[in-house]
Amino acid sequence: MVRNLDMTSLRSFVAIADAGGVTRAAGFLNLTQSAVSMQIKRLEEMLDVQLLDRSGRQVGLTAAGEQLLGYARRMLALNDEAFGRLTQDMHEGEVVLGVPHDIVYPAIPQVLQRFAKEYPRMRVTLLSSFTRVLKAQFARGECDVILSTEADLEPGGETIAELPLVWVGAPGGVAWKSRPLRLAYEHNCIFRQGVQAELDRAGIPWVMAVESDSTRTVEASVSADLAVHTVLAGSEPPYVERIAHGGALPELGRMKVNLYRAEPAHSPTVLALAEMLRRAYAQRPGRLSVVAERGEATAAG
């Protein structure tokens, strides 16, 4: 009995899962709809299971299909990696990555360095902005992959890390002891309102001492001990330090680092970049936790 899964059929299956239907997948693969349907039929017959739920208006995955999808992604990724390495297949083009200001360091430079080594002819355009701005750009199709820092997860994304939000101030600073507490934030910082709400609940008066559209302005003000700020643990910028407040300031809980990837991905390099980001956070020293939470029934590619 033949026990070899056909890579072409697996690629069509993954394309259907990503595109949400046979017609869109066929266009993505530059195949006819009938050719894609035949490949799926062949795959279902080989495994003797139904992979697609065709009962609704949109094609979905059965339980068996959801299980196969994770295996299929990993098999295709390994196949493409081996083929590229052995044939010196060079990808060319551009990938646009969006990352919030406050989590560019330390993970992103390492990811960009590795990506440049593996795909030397690919250009990565890094957009650094606020989560709200990046999500709007992603929705308009201006980014291939974005990271976000937020409390929740929207459909289509996956949580790759969950980290505590911590107070930071000047090294040896005393601004955190002042009342009202002097805060420094960018206008569009997604943490801002939540932090203010926690201070209100704790009965701690506060004042917005520094407001700016510039992350550098906020960092400089905090490092000068003019105010305090909050960042995700492990992303503390230079010249500031985590405040050992001993309970004088409220604990702020955890925030998610979410990954959103364009569907369907227009290039294998987009999938590769997303996987590098996952690994960077999974291997991050001192991380609190990495969770396997997803906004849809997909597995890491």
**CATH fold field value of the largest domain:** D-Maltodextrin-Binding Protein, domain 2
> What's the architecture of the largest domain in CATH terms?
3-Layer(aba) Sandwich
Count of β-strands: 12
Low-confidence stretches: 285-301
N- to C-terminal distance: 29 Å
Structural class: alpha/beta
Helix content: 25-40%
The helix/strand series, from N terminus to C terminus, equals HHHEEHEHEHEEEHEHEEEHE
Gist of the model:
The protein is 39% helix and 23% strand.
Task: Explain what you see.
The chain has 301 residues and is an alpha/beta fold. The protein has two domains: 7-87, Winged helix-like DNA-binding domain superfamily/Winged helix DNA-binding domain (Arc Repressor Mutant, subunit A), CATH 1.10.10; 91-301, D-Maltodextrin-Binding Protein, domain 2, CATH 3.40.190.290. 39% of the residues lie in helices and 23% in strands. It is built from nine helices and twelve strands. It has helices spanning 7-19, 22-29, 33-47, 63-87, 107-118, 131-139, 192-201, 215-223, 268-282; strands at residues 52-53, 60-61, 93-100, 122-129, 145-150, 157-169, 181-186, 206-212, 229-232, 241-242, 254-261, 293-294. The strands form three sheets. Strands 3, 4, 5, 6, 9, 10, 11 and 12 form an eight-stranded mixed β-sheet that branches. It has a two-stranded antiparallel ribbon with strand order 1-2. The protein has a two-stranded parallel sheet with strand order 7-8. Helix 1 packs across helix 2 and helix 1 packs across helix 4. It is elongated and about 70 Å long. The model is unreliable at 285-301 (pLDDT under 50).
